[in-house]
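Box 3.1. Reading complex inputs
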Amino acid sequence: MLALAVFIVLFSVIPVGRLILTAFDGGVVAFWQVIDAPEVWRASRNTLVVALGSGGLAMLIGVSFALILSVTNLRARTALAFIMVLSLMIAPQISALAFKTLAGPASPLLKLIGLAPSPGTPNPMLGQFGIILVMGLHHAPLVAITLASGLASIPRPLIEAARLEGASPWQVVRYIMLPLLRPFLLTAALLVFVAGTGNFGIPALLGLPVGYVTLPTLLFRKLASFGPGAINDAAAISVLIAAIACTGVIAAGLVLARAQNRLESDHRLEPFWDLGRWRLAMEMAVWGFVALTILLPLASLVATSVVPAYGVRLSLESATLRQYAEVLFRQDLTVRAFRNSLMLAGAAALSLGVIALISAYVLDRAKPKARAAAFALIELPYAVPGIVLAIACILLFIKPLPLIGVSIYATPWIILFAYHARFYAIALKPVLAAMATLDDAVQEAAVCDGVGLYHRLRHIVAPLVFPAVFAGMLMVFLLAFNELTVSALLWSAGTETLGVALLSLEDSGLAAEAAAVAVAATLLVLVLMLVMQLMARRLPPDALPWQGLAGPGKLRRG
Amino acid sequence: MNRMIPLSLGLVASLVLLAGPARAVEGTLTLYTSQPNTDAQQSVDAFMKAYPDVTVTFVRDGTTKIMAKLEAELAAGVTPADVLLIADSVTMEGLKARDLLLSHPDADISAYAEGVHDSGKTWFGTKLITTGIMYNTAATMIPASWEDLLKDEAKGQVAMPSPLTSGAALIHTATLVGNLDAGWGYYEALAAHGAQAAGGNGGILTQVAGGEKLYGMVVDFLPIREKAKGAPVEFVFPEEGVSAISEPVAILASTQNPDAAKAFVDFLISKEGQELALSQGYLPAHPDVAVPEGFPDRSTIKVMPFDAAKALAEAEANTARFAEIFGQ
């Protein structure tokens, strides 16, 4: 119990509390003075446009995808779901870079086929349109995954009954499934709205170069260019970002509270819509979409990474691997960034695995109300955008720590701390779910035999929930490895992360080198995901996000 | 005669003392720099080759940003930085006035002209980096003066770095405002003409080389170097003149390793260090080192006059005014 309280206070209450104190340091009037500036209003408007626009696009794509994968007899669903989740697991700044190289006069692929617009044409990916497009596509898998868990809870008998009564597949989807999915649709919409509000990587790469500023990039630029003098302004702006995100959370919470329908069934939904001769057409449409929006940008990124100089036409003779040699072997900064990101993500994953196990054990035994309150607090640092958490950490650690007098500012520890706060909820969720399914009788028997808490955790609980702990750790690792928002503000000499290195290369004008780093990082994520796929049989069902999305195997007949 | 021996021995001993004990140059060194990553790595590698016992780590960001980082660390009480290699001497003068720089009286600057380095020997110019105009070779109008960027052909096609990121851009802004008749009016006209100001010089290079914009205000070495690699760009020294920075190096007073830091400074201003800058495509500050390919002779480059003291005093006001004009 005490351990849980310590984790919650340390990772949630202290950072968020410190931020709110600073933002309102000079009272509400001073807070208002910072907020009431033309640049802040403009950035707020842009943030809302981007969050709503990209959210709408993500919903459209994500819902279609989830439905097609779960109700129709499409083939190769696992491969589709895998690619979809891969696109989510690729860092947002890498997606942004890929799309940036895809269009515009410098696009190596367009140049190769002679379709590049003439010089002097602006890149359509830079600015509002590009940000909404890339962010919408990037967040679509989030919607699909959220819906997949909802689809899994729809009882199969309900569908079968409707089909027997002669309902068409489309009627089943429209009048039975969509109404049942309402809470999940809301959750998904909320998720993408909050993610869109707080996203930093995409507007940083596609907005800042053309002066299109959102609240997170405004905050970053203020702090990066004006230093600690701007910290109070930054705190006020970050509270504004959090407020926008929270408005969404509260609105969704109100609607969700009224829409509670718990459906559990042993018979999971299975594909019922036989597309017949339309199947091939549908498959071509879906794969075409995936190729266009996920595979093509990645191919463009690869092409950019082998051009001899930005703007040069690519050919077999001019292609070079020099950039890879440069960033993977020669430049200390990028080599160090790979190492740092691997180590920080690994350390956060390992330590959160243990913390999640202990917390879930305590939470599982807490009273429902206390559990809900505790979980809300744990989720707070993940729900508020990463840049807000980063500001909170700076405020917290810019002065040496009380009592021991050591400062962790400008050390890797501040980033590791922020990762703990940010990804605590991610590590905890699957463990909590697994813990709830455990049979208490086993434990009670152990207690009767006089087995202590440590040994009960170590030898009874841990082995049973280990797959869930492992799944949570992997998610934490992938998220932390790709992360830029938190480390963009917290990095220092020697603690640059991969995201920071990418931004630095872009800023130096080393576009091809930046692309090489992006390709290498993407390959690493791909390999990790393939390893997870190979281990799938040893994990509990749906531990891997794309398994849930792909749904169960074949079309049931008869 | 016998008494002469101890006397001369004493003389020798005191001479040795004067020369100082030959302390080994070793340990670690952290460099904060605004050089592009590849160049910074090459500089560091060349130094470590000459001093194998020193390990140098570098951190790179735009001058304005890296200074913000340094300030934040100083506020937190400690910075890992030992040596700074940043765009401009104005920023260095600001640090010197706050006693944050360590002077290096033994530095050999005899070969250099007056004014290249700080007379108090705290900062040392390493190059001559001018800001002029680059254009994509697809452009129909070839700019020859700053005013040409206001022509119709350049409408919505000009990109420039922002002083919010770049130190060179800050000096460039102060120089143009001080020298062009229109002053700030020139920048207001550019903004009204759809010119875009954001980020650092690197971003300008990619935008113009990639053809997203046709014209850019940019530091000389980037387009000249990329042209050599085959990129479709040209660089012009406008007829009114160019602005210039010297990419100075300085040692922070708080350094834990002054010997290695001094060796690093000595290396950069040595003939060998200057040859390295030449090989990287920079115009070296050393008058006896050649000019890289693609550059005109030193004497033909017209640098506009610039009031450093005024620029220092007005740095923040200039940045704010620039940000206001370009809606940042």
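In summary: The two ends of chain B are 82 Å apart (CA to CA).
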